[in-house]
Amino acid sequence: MARMWLFLPVLLFFILGGLLWKGLGIDPKILPSALINQTFPNFKLESLKTDSKMLTRADLIGKPVLVNVWATWCPACRQEHAQLLQIANSKQIPIIGLNYKDERESALTWLEQLDNPYKFNIYDHDGMLGLDLGVYGAPETYLLDKNGIIQYRHVGVLTAETWQQLQELIHAL
Amino acid sequence: MLYKVISLQILIGLCFCFSSFNLLAAIGVYEFKDETKQLRFQQLTAELRCPKCQNQNLADSNAEIAQDLRTKVYQMLQAEKADAEIIEYMLARYGEFVLYKPRLTLQTALLWYGPFLLLAFGIIIIGFILRQRAKTFTEVNKNTLPSVDNKKLAALLNPTEDKK
Predict the structure, then answer these.
(1) Cβ separation B69–A131 shorter than 8 A
(2) Is the complex ipTM more than 0.85?
């Protein structure tokens, strides 16, 4: 029986090896959001379409929404646009745009040319809401529950696979 | 007197200025009225990590987000915020990741002190094995050596004593 203890190092080796193996698969570029399970930061910003209309956090509360951070200077945003349109067409969840550090003119032209998947757009010209949200690179997509609590963050292009994952999360809400 | 902060990156950037005008955009000059604030600014931007370009700190990075965060640090310093408050602000938004000097948490403690724990564990095991070995060795000796006449043995080892 005492001899069995001799296998302890081997066991430890496999445990450590397993952990390291798992670590190899983690993408260091994807940062966990510090805001998961926290309420969306408060803000008071103009709407992209009409500068007189002010939007606040209250506009995001009521039912689950996706908040998509985008800008015309961001090539990956163009790449995910078709997927956003598809989500909008599925009518499963409204998408709210956060136009991040962009120019109003070019953003509106973009929406005209590529079609508009957004219910409305928050115009964050200075990127201050982006800063509060911990945005570090567009595009980013946040899933908010009906109380405006951040449930999930996706960094990078929203693909069909990500939409699959998001749908599962939305159904679980 | 006004002190101007020119980070290392800017100095390097200046060398390249002659070839590219785009770099000019990355040069941010922050003006400080007192030296301690300037030092704090340099220290904070050196200790905070850029979330976008992961192996650079805020002072060295040219990424948009790093510029924004530098400006934020500057604004917060001007607003007389403490270093701890500024770090707390960054932590709340970007998580532990932004710290080049991580705080002591359960995870970092495990990382830093875990090896010593393993070392102690190893020493205990070696001690245990050695003791076990010594025990079996003496037991073997007891069982195999023939019984000795102690008087004879003493006489052999110490012949002078016998003559007294």
Answers:
(1) yes
(2) no
Q: Which residues constitute the domain of residue A161?
A: 35-172
In a domain, A14, yes or no: no
Q: Do B65 and A136 touch (CB under 8 A)?
A: yes
Q: How many domains does chain A contain in total?
A: 1
The reported pLDDT for the residue numbered A25 is 84
| Residue carrying the six token digits 């397993």 | A18
Whether the pLDDT of residue A71 is over 90: the answer is yes
Look up residue B158 and give its two tokens. Answer: 């110490």
Question: B65 in contact with A at a CB cutoff of 8 Å?
Answer: yes
Tell me, yes or no, whether A12 lies in a domain: no
Burial class (CB in 10 A: 0-12, 13-18, 19+), A129: buried
Place of tokens 């510090």: A34
Dihedral of alpha carbons B92, B94, B100, B103, sign: positive
- The enclosing domain of A86 has a CATH number of 3.40.30.10
Q: What's the pLDDT tens digit per position in A125-145?
A: 988 899 989 898 889 999 999
Chain B residues within 8 A of A35 when measuring between CB atoms: 92-93
CATH topology for the B3-98 domain: Helicase, Ruva Protein; domain 3 (1.10.8)
Cβ neighbours, 10 Å, residue B146 = 4
pLDDT digits (tens, 9 = 90+) for A87-129: 999 999 999 999 999 999 999 999 999 999 999 999 999 888 9
